[in-house]
Amino acid sequence: xxxxxxxxxxxxxxTSTAYDADAIETLEGMEAVxxxxxxxxxxxxxxxxxxxxxxxxxxxxxxxxxxxxDRVDVTLHRDRSVEVSDNGRGIPxxxxxxxxxxxxxxxxxxxxxxxxxxxxxxxxxxxxxxxGASVVNAxxxxxxxxxxxxxxxxxxxFEDRVAGQFNGSDPFKPGHQLKKTKRVSKNKTGTRVRFxxxxxxxxxxxxxxxxxxxxxxxxxxxxxxGMRASVTDKRVGGVPEPFVFTSPGGLxxxxxxxSDAPPVCGVITGxxxxxxxEKVPVNKKMTDVERECTVxxxxxxxxxxxxxxxxxxxxIPTPQGGTHLAGFDKALTRVINNVVLKDHxxxxxLAKQNKHKAVKDDVQEGLVAALKVxxxxxxxxxxxxxxxGTPAIxxxxxxxxxxxxxxxxxxGGGPRTHVKAIADKLSNAVQNRVASKTxxxxxxxxxxxxxxxxxxxxxxxxxxGMDAELILVEGDSAAGPAKRxxxxxxxxxxxxxxxxxxxHKASAKQVLDNAEARALFTAMGAGAGDxxxxxxxxxxxxxxxxxxxxDGSHIRCLLLTLIYKYMRPMLEAxxxxxxxxxxxxxxxxxxxxxxYSEEEKEQATDELCKGNRRRENVKWQRFKGLGEMNVEELRxxxxxxxxxxxxxxxxxxxxxxxxxxxxxxxxxxTDVSSRRDFLVRNSAVVDSSTLDI
Length: 693
Prior knowledge:
The structure is a single chain. The chain is built from 22 helices and 23 strands. The strands form four sheets. Strands 1, 2, 3, 4, 5, 6, 7, 8, 9 and 10 form a ten-stranded mixed sheet that branches. A five-stranded mixed sheet has the order 11-12-15-13-14, with helices on both faces. Strands 17-16-18-19-23 form a five-stranded mixed sheet. The protein starts with a helix and ends in an 11-residue tail after the last helix.
């Protein structure tokens, strides 16, 4: 029981946590960035550190985009510092009227300070918030800036966010005065910024990735045609040669660069300008301001089914899209239906059922595209600028893209052979989607009927749900022992007798036409692709049980890729496993030893021969296939939950399996020429002494 006196003592003890006026804490300036870095750069790992580099690169690229620079150079130093330089106008060095210090110091110490507000120094830029340079300084232990401007090189340093000068071996000297280190031509201008990240804030293993920086500046060169960018890695073990890139063709070059499959058509380009009205504060009063927005687009279709659409706002990539990408999607789908596929002969039957209209996925099958919008003060959703939020851009992009593409697709526009090739590809996509959906609906109806609707080769279990598992085995030889060794209460066996379709390359129709894939989808009873509903799954787990050899690895890759493409929620939920059958076994006395590789076999033999036993007396049996195991062996290594070894497969495993299939296709496929080219290319890495010639 709490008495009044005891209550007083409790309140006194909790005074430090009382919620009153003194509990309201304010964070001034850059301390807010250090307190909550994730709000500004997304995190304190490698991605957050890279974001600081992007901020400086974006500032330099903005100078080039505005027509004041034509080169950007990035240097990764041995001491983990990063330097970004440009030959733009140079950050202003004059005295700031309000702050009474140089404008250069204001840029690096004040949040929301810069030349990107109100249309002053930039008509458009990658930045919105004006916090880029100051955030870099806030999360650095040391930062130096050199500005070539007005006939001299002017230097300012920062140590722990305090302005001053570094004088060689002398201690840092705080101060607001810029130091003029040398005279230069009045025509020479530019900015060089070098910062040392604060690893008390960043994770110790956070690092700047050379390839990512190269990709970023390459992308920037596509966005600012004619700009030359370089990346130099001076770190220990770094890349010896500097990376240098330039692009005269802009977005068209980017689309050509991204097209890694045979093209269906040439690169289509379009551009246009429109205006919109936006309310912004002017002299502390909300005022209607007219904005001008430029839209640039380049696209083509290639063979295959993968979609690559990149979007940009000014010079900033927007991987999460936004209003500009929404407008592009709508315009593209509309022009394909209204112009390209209108009255197409292949869709005549579907038109009678009102199923002939293409949807977004049909239109973007095999699409490679780049979209860029340029306008002042864009509204991003979040400081990391990954998604555009300005509402009016949706309609502008939709109008411009529709008009430009309509003109290209209509007679007198693009080459008719290219238009026909696009129409044939997209009409096939519509047909495949409709046929796949119809087949899928029929399968799901059959699955709902009970065991009579299941694949004939399925040995089903008696209880379904989360505790049940579907075990996929290769061939009838393995299916026999597996059926006899399983727990028929919760384990179902589905043997795969034919070749599983390569879902990485095949269309949806080809996948659903494949007997093995169809059997898997029907047995699970939860649909496939976008229609897959994990809540309807008849089994809680899928277990892939294949031989421990190259053929088994190939089948496992095919199955994993199929699940990755068409039953992805199972992987995301961690409900897909691979059984790990042994490659070798031996029996010493009453003890059985199983190993999973040649290396493990040698290690196990060494252990078994530590006494007086001779190596030749250790007789290892190699399992060439699961079918060679007796029921007890298979139960012990793959079926009994108490003794088997299962490996949970992840989304990364699924992605890697898709990549591995490319190599299997080269080494084991029917294309002899590609296999020969691969062997010739890699012959130098083979130790000829290991070959049995």
